[in-house]
What does this fold into?
Amino acid sequence: MFRYILRNFYRGSGNVKMYILTIATLGAILLMILYAPAGYLNEILEIVPKPDISLSEHPPGTEMHYGYFNIGGSDLLIISSKNTSEVLRFLTGKDVKISNISIGCEVGNFSVREYLENLTGMRVEVLECMGSFIDHAAIVERDAFQQITSSCPGEIQRIYLRDYVSDGITAPSAYTVARDLLKIVSFHQSLLYVSSTTLLSVICLILGLRASNDIKQMLTWLSEMHIPTSKMFFYICLIYLGATTIGVFAGYGLAHLTIPLVLIFLRLFFKIPYIYAGLDISSIVIILPIALLSFLSYIFAISWMVFRER
Amino acid sequence: MRKEIILITVLVLAIFTVLSPWLVNKAPYIGDAWIHLRKAEDIVIQGRLKLEEYNDMWPLVNLLIVFYSIILGIPPLISTQIIPFLVSLSAINLYIISLKVSRSKYAAFSTPIALIFTPLYTFITFGSAVMKETAAFYLTTLLVAYFLVNRPNLICLLLLSFGLVVGHHFASLAILMFLLSILIEDFSDLLNGNIYYLRRDIVIISIFGALLLSWNFFVFSKIGWFPPISGNSLLMMTFTLFGIYVISRIGRLSSVTFQFFLIPLTALAWRGHLHDIPTPVNPLSIWEVRDLIIFIIPALIGLALFWRDRIIRSISVSTTTLIVFSLISGLDYNSLIIFTKSLHYYCIFLALVFGLSWPLIIKKRFGKILFTIVSIYLMLASITGIGLALNGPGAYHEIEYEQLQELRDKLHEPLTMDVKLSYLSKYLNIEYSTFHKLKQGDYVLLTKSNFMHGILLGYVWVDLSLYMPYHVIFSCDRLFDGEYLKIFRVNNV
It folds into this structure.
């Protein structure tokens, strides 16, 4: 019996096929409107380096001295500060306890280590690899730095390191622009979400009510088959629920391919850099309200007709 | 009789097109050929097939070379050309598909012509190559054609599926996508009360799926895990298939509009205008754009006419899924590989819809004249592509092979060379290292294409001057200075 009802609803002109396509198309439009710009900016935030520090020649900030000094026949970058751990945290983002004199893991040259130990009379510690320029440099406390600078040729530079957040006068970087834009887009996204969901739901409601004539015709055929009303109503609900689920996934699939394709065209025609903004599977949730409203509008129309007949 | 003559003419054209790199350059096309040639020679010498590494995982190409070498009594080097020859036979499969779908001889003849002379030039660049996917191409088109048989023979189906499964994983994926699209069509038909194809198709899919899983499980357990595609990519591909199916079902206009945007995008990507990878292809010229327009218009008409046909729609959905997936998954090196492979299957669809437009156009005034003009025009237009392929970066020349073979015994130091020459060197057992920062005393092997197109590093082409600026080349000792090959000893870097 279920198959018979399904076939009738699938064949008719105000049919399940159209219902699925409607949800899929509207869902994809919604996802495209909401997610294309936000996804694009999110991707930018992923690839643009995040400036955690700002550098200045003037205080406030953590004072740091640095310079290239000829040690053991080769130039070595030496960084010094009263608070070397703080400097290291600024430069690498890692909290590492260091001794009076520390060298990067790539310096590894035994002669450099020996030279520094002999010069300062302090033990030199080799830092773990950090994957940054620190691996090729030495970090020393102020006292040791003075000893090195007095005996090795090289020019000393002074700079102040500040936390990016506490620095109000930093020029906007690509990161800050993208982040601020994302905030604006996120704000508008909420407005857009409400307005587009409302608009698309109204379209779904109209489509649901417009389909009523065809549904009415099918219900008349089915009532001629003497199928119990409750059973018939249950099966119809089941059919539309299944169609709603398929529509939601199809809508996601549609948006999932149209968003990157639109971005590719934007790159081709307007030279906007292409950043892959693929949709996360969780964004399927966005389609659910319009799908649910669409389902309810159809079921409302059907129940009205079924129960009015009784 | 006239029909047979035309079909034979088309077939001859197909054979000559794909064999043109061999006939002109007298060497196999694309570096993979040397790997498979070596594998085939090993099988002939040892008398058994070994499953040891990636190129053994799908051994159809190696077995075909061996088989024809033994049967015809020809050297394996010549026997490699059986692979392009088999690709050319795909023209017959396309003829059958088109004839069955349209029942028009004009459509049937123009479809293989469109495949051979597509302005994207995929038939020559892909069909001429001796690769795993090329070896599986004939079986791919045959399996699609076999779907038009109402009662397929189980033995034939088993053999076909097995051949394809051991042919190449991507060809199997393309067919799997096609079968999934067919299955969706079947379920749609089922809801309309038509269950005619469903049982048959479930049997075919089960056989193919079982063979696909069994073979891949077998080779993975023997050789080791090779992830052809990740689980995440498969999920992404499924959603892409779903999305494209929806587009194809919305209506004729949506299908045509979507392809209207996709075909030019594909052409641009193919000619290196889209991906973030330097490729040595010439940029698309205005004349080629004109050729593409002449090709695209009938193709879109054909799609508009036959978009309701379940086979055409399934081919459209499956091949479009692959090409769209390759584009939306990123524009990097991995996506370029998937894109290149997908394009060959996408061109089957384009050729089909191009051919299917002719039953309508032919009925119009001057239709037959237009058919003749467009067919001849496509042939002439594809000369550009044939020229690009013959002198392109993937082409080898007989002299390169012969000279390197002669030099082999005189070489006592490892040579620095690019990936293209490394394929040939590996085949000839010549010690080599790939390009790196050159030092004094390094020996460098270069060929003509290195000067013309650059150096191939993996899939990326870079200019020769990046490693060897002119002043370095001029200061080198020329140990060998042939027409194609040159050996330098670096003096001053």
